[in-house]
Design brief:
alpha/beta, five-stranded parallel β-sheet, about 50% helix, about 20% strand
Length: about 130
């Protein structure tokens, strides 16, 4: 899998953990953003295949994670977006999945909670590479 990934999360610590898991999964992390507005700008510049997007970040420039997800998916419908959140509520998860998110991972996560997503990513990006 040679997916190019962009990590969008306001926590530097969480970005490091996500980078570790993505790199271990064979992804190349091409950028990191601290908020949804910065992430959306980087998305347009870098054109990643995969994005991890924190659900709960301080709003910047009128941009929150749901709006960013909608704009990115409209610009690139095949984009793979993994939502990352400390909020375990089914309704919130379901809303993001209905908007086209690929997966929803609840923080704090471990190699075991990331494993099902890693397996799913391997299947998707292996098919795309074939």
């Amino acid at each position: 899998m040679a997916a190019r990934a962009l990590i969008i999360d306001d926590s530097a610590f969480t970005r490091r953990i996500i980078r570790h898991h993505l790199t271990k999964s064979g992804c190349t992390v091409i950028g990191e953003a601290e908020n949804a507005a910065q992430g959306l700008r980087m998305f347009h510049e870098l054109k990643p295949d995969l994005i991890t997007l924190d659900v709960m970040m301080p709003e910047a420039d009128g941009m929150d994670s749901l709006r960013a997800l909608r704009e990115m998916r409209a610009a690139q419908p095949e984009l793979t977006v993994i939502m990352v959140s400390a909020v375990p509520f089914d309704k919130i998860r379901d809303n993001y999945l209905k908007e086209g998110a690929f997966a929803y991972i609840v923080k704090p996560f471990t190699q075991y909670s990331f494993e099902p997503v890693r397996q799913k990513l391997l299947r998707v990006f292996r098919q795309n590479a074939a």
